[in-house]
Model the fold of this input.
Amino acid sequence: MNRASVLRMSTRYVLPFVFILMLATLSVFEIKYGLLAITATLSITLALLRPKAIYFFMVALLPVTAFDVLSNVSYVRLIGLLLTVCLGLRIAMLRIRAPQDHLYKYFGLFFIAGTLSLFSATDLNISLVRLLTYLSLFLFYFFGRYFFRRLHDVNMSVNILILSTLFFQFLGVTTHPSRQRISAGVGDPNGYAALLDVLIPLAIYRALNVSGIRRVLYLAIIIALTVLLMLTGSRGGYLGFVAAACVLLYHYGTRRILAVTVLTVCIAGTVYFAAPDLFWQRADSITVSQKRDSSIDLRLGHYRAALLMFLDHPLTGVGIGNFRLNNLKYGDVRSQVVHDTYLEVLTGGGLLSLIPFLMIELTCWRSLSIKECNEKALSDLLICLKASFASLLTTGLFLSAAYDKTLWFSFSLISSAYYAIPSKMELCTF
Done:
């Protein structure tokens, strides 16, 4: 029996069962509990029959909250749990093979190193939460690899994420209009800036592969995302934007000079006329530590403490997520995260964690080579993904993003684009 027959049989028998269950629930329980049970039943049914819809809904909620575990209950976590259970059942029912991937071995090594760091953790609970967060992010990566089978799926996810980001930012402005540095639903302006740095090149990719009014719409979206980036006041975000622009200019500078020129003029004009004073103040302080902004000196203190901490615990670190519990012992002045992805991984899990993490990023970068790709749309996607990834590598020097959902979503996009190259298609088995 093939998969289509199994799905038809599931639809034929599951939907009547759900309808009967709904009637029974309403007749036995109170209305509010009955409606809650019906909602849960319909959600599980939808996840079993149309899991891609649930996954895209999760993508739409990425700008809302962090993808953490065991801290607070959120829609993203509930949907992730629902998707995990139902996708597992679906794979078991249809006997679907998981997609092959060249990153699995490094993810496994990273998890083993994180587990070993538990033995040296100052606070075991914090490390366990981080380890569970890593597992949830790996599942999120796996779902992306499972559902991004065609270029159309990648385009759909990019469109959904861009629109949801703009929507939730509008919602955030209307509910909190007095905030000086915007952050939408992400909470941290620096994390929000990293998300915008990823979305701007992806919006450029969509603009390059449409025409007419849709191209004009994407150009407007690019300008809107650039303005939002300026309003975050994130210096790391500004540098990430510069890194992405350098990659785009390197690949498109000679082949599409007119389009690059028009886009550069639009963005430069936006920066000059629309940039608030906050943008110029924060941009100037990248190289000059001002008296009114001591965050640069504070981060330098974190970096010094991190290096001293690494020298004392070189192999397994002090436990993932435990830097802030130990940095005061090394002459630091404030208990915070280290604000550097690589130093955070190094101090938390030692060299055993840093090496596989760097291998994950290096493998992703090498996967973005366009030499083997002759298809225009896919080539544009690889270039713009490289620009997005360059921005993440840059912003990662200024915030702790090893367990950030934006980074892991980018991992799944990069791997999916790599296996979409015709010469690599046979390597990806579903």
